[in-house]
Amino acid sequence: MALPDPGEQARRFIKVREAHRSEVQQDYVELIADLVAERGEARVTDLAERFGVTTATVANTLARLKRDGLVEDRPYRSLSLTAAGVAMADASRRRHDIVIGFLLRLGVSPAVAELDAEGLEHHLSAETLRAMQAFRG
């Protein structure tokens, strides 16, 4: 197979790097939204436990999310999402559900579909997601 045009190949790699950067944001806002919905609050320690990282790592990521206008973090209060954060969490949840539904329709077991969807959902184009949604019915 021949190598693609250098400019096209560069565009592909740039797209992947951009997806990796937004992946962390999407995972964090989605988990914060889920925790708030289930428990009424999301705390740094909850995020650290569920992501399997240190509270320092969570604090650094939250600082970036605050800078990007996705999360509000007030002293002595739990975390909350801004309107932009809620919109991102909702979009991320929809993407996740589409991918899981597609994988289940293919016959993938629920546990594997959940695991695989966690990585795929961040890297698929809108076109591919529409096709997956149409396929699963």
UniProtKB/TrEMBL annotation:
Q: Does the keyword Protein biosynthesis apply?
A: no
Which keywords does the record carry?
Activator, Cytoplasm, DNA-binding, Manganese, Repressor, Transcription, Transcription regulation
Q: Name one Pfam family in it.
A: Fe_dep_repress
Q: Which InterPro entries match?
A: DtxR_MntR_Metal-Reg (IPR050536), Fe_dep_repressor (IPR001367), Fe_dep_repressor_sf (IPR036421), HTH_DTXR (IPR022687), Iron_dep_repressor (IPR022689), WH-like_DNA-bd_sf (IPR036388), WH_DNA-bd_sf (IPR036390)
HTH dtxR-type domain: which residues?
Answer: 21-82
Q: Which domain of life is it from?
A: Bacteria
The family database entries (SUPFAM superfamilies) matched by this protein are listed as: Winged helix' DNA-binding domain (SSF46785)
The subcellular localization recorded is: Cytoplasm
Amino-acid biosynthesis keyword on record: no
Question: What quaternary arrangement does the UniProt entry report?
Answer: Homodimer.
PANTHER family named among the record's database cross-references: IRON (METAL) DEPENDENT REPRESSOR, DTXR FAMILY, TRANSCRIPTIONAL REGULATOR MNTR
Q: Which NCBIfam families match?
A: PRK11050.1
Its biological purpose is as follows: In the presence of manganese, represses expression of mntH and mntS. Up-regulates expression of mntP.
Protein family (similarity comment): Belongs to the DtxR/MntR family.
- What is this protein called in UniProt? Transcriptional regulator MntR
Q: State the organism of origin.
A: Sphingomonas arantia
